[in-house]
Predict the structure.
Amino acid sequence: MAKTLDDLIRTNPLPVFIDFWADWCGPCRSLAPSVKQLAQEFSGRLTVVKVNVDRQPDAAARFQVQGIPALLLFDKGELRWRSAGAMPYQQLRQEVLKAISG
């Protein structure tokens, strides 16, 4: 089991999708069902991780998260895609498909 987010990104056999969020963030709450749906639809093809920036400020700083929600997708340790702000599920799905198939 990975000890840190960096370990997970580096060693996970599947691409890793990270959602940086906070309880007080309205756009984060509106994006949450899409992130959950993504995790279900891509089960076995994608590892989805939610990181609360209030509980893990070091992780947010490490990944240079300026605003939330911040979405990052890593594959084989490399950043493949990054976005900030909420988006509709279909757009999120398309971005993930492009990132993991490219």
Q: What stands out?
A: The chain has a mean pLDDT of 95. The CA atoms of residues 53 and 61 lie 9 Å apart.
